Amino acid sequence: MRSVRARAAIGATLVVAVALVAAGLAVLSVLRTNLIDQADLQAEVAAREVAGQLALDTAYADLDLDDEEDHPAQVTDEEGRVVFVSKGLRAISGTGSTGVSPVPSASAGATPSPGDDDDDDDDGGGSGRPERGEVSSDDPDFSDGTATVDGKQADYRFAAVEATTPAGLTLTVHAGAPLAAEQEAVNTVRGAMLTGLPLLLAVVAGVTWLVTRRALRPVEGIRREMAAITASEDLARRVPEPGSRDEIAALARTTNETLTVLEASVERQRRFVADASHELRSPIASLRTQLEVAEAHPELLDLPGAVADTVRLQVLAADLLLLARLDAGEKPGAARLEAGALVREEVSQRTGDRIPVTVEVAEDAAYEVNGSRGQLVRVIGNLLDNAQRHAEDRVTVQVAADGSGVRVEVRDDGAGVPEDERERIFERFVRLDDARSRDDGGAGLGLAIARDVAARHGGTLTVHRAPEGGAAFRLWLPRAA
């Protein structure tokens, strides 16, 4: 079943069905228990009424029974013999004796035999049986049975009450209360439930289907638009956002945000490819021209120029390869490095710089960070290259503690970076001074690589105005754990 609407409707219907069936069974159980309790009370009242008359030595023929049709009665003696039945009783079950014809026995007011008297004395006291002329105060025994009164058979609830006549004869009175009302009420409620349950489940299923369909209508619109975007490859399109503030609206907003990021990423990738092709075209064309001239006129070969173009190609290829690895999510190493030592080592190897670099690092301090040695050296080198291109007379590198991290700051005394351009310079292939030659100005990848490497190491790279008036690039890295 692939439809969410169908699954939701069936699920809701099943849940409601189970709940209604459980509730219905509970209602029927409570109703049946209450009605049976009422029948027990009626049967007990009828039985005690008869037992009270017997305790007063009323003769069987003179017993006064109210509503004998609804409360049939049967009286048995100690030996289980039937000594009295109510008028019209033709058959009975559930009372321990099925007899409906009284047998000759001592009357209610007869004098017991001496043997019976002795037995009565022996059984007195703690026997729990009623004294002479009394009705048992114990809770009666209840049972289910049937009785046929005046040719009509019905179910009854019987109560058994013991009574002792003044003559010492113990009799058991069984009186019944009809269960027709209980059965009719239970059947009525059960019928109503069986009739209403399917209708209610149909309503639940229909309402759930309509509500789910209405709720999922924006999702279908999002799906169609995404399919159209996929087919057209037009990332400028956006999915419709419903006016509600529910999860579907949040899904639409998130989808549009994802499309925006994806569009920017694709556009950035396109610009990257175009800029990389443009940057590679110039040194390749220059190198080809020099080789073609050298082939025709070997004496005119500009060997230093060819070497310079080859080096530039090599550097550019290395930069592009590093950017590709960073974009692919390459994680930096976890080596423990000392930032001051890295700076000193990099500065000592830069013998061809036009301006000497001043290093400011406390001798007795240790600024340890975790990361890739090669990538961090590359960042420091790129920042120094940038400072060398723009400085007038001074380049300074300072390493110091900064909160929970280490700050490496590269400053120059050049023209600085305009405030509105301080973020754009970290984009790839961006050069603010278009008047510079490509050889002097670089390809515009150094700062982009530096910021990406800093971010991969959990740090930041920002640019500010230096006290000397030029640019101050601050590389912040977290301290080693």
Question: What does this 3D model show about the protein?
Answer:
The chain has 481 residues and is α+β, with helices and mostly antiparallel strands. The protein folds into three domains: 180 residues; 81 residues, Signal transduction histidine kinase, dimerisation/phosphotransfer (DHp) domain (Helix Hairpins); 144 residues, Histidine kinase-like ATPase, C-terminal domain (Heat Shock Protein 90, 2-Layer Sandwich). Helix content is 48%, strand content 19%. It is built from nine helices and 14 strands. The strands form three sheets. Strands 1, 2, 3, 4, 5, 6 and 7 form a seven-stranded antiparallel β-sheet that branches. The protein has a five-stranded mixed β-sheet with strand order 9-11-12-14-13. The chain has a two-stranded antiparallel sheet with strand order 8-10. β5 and β6 form a beta hairpin. α5 packs parallel to α9 and α7 packs antiparallel against α9. The longest helix is centred in the middle third of the chain and has 53 residues. About 6% of the residues have low confidence.
Portion of residues in beta strands equals 15-25%
Total helices: the number is 9
Q: What's the β-strand tally?
A: 14
What is the gyration radius calculated from CA atoms? Answer: 53 Å
N-to-C span:
53 Å
The main β sheet shows up as:
7 strands, antiparallel
What count of structural domains?
3
Low-pLDDT parts are 106-127, 434-439
> What percent of residues adopt helix (DSSP H or I)?
40-55%
* Shape designation: rod-shaped
Class per helix and strand makeup: alpha+beta
- Return the string of H and E elements: HEEEHEEEEHHHEHEEHEEHHEE
For the residues shown, what is the average pLDDT? 84
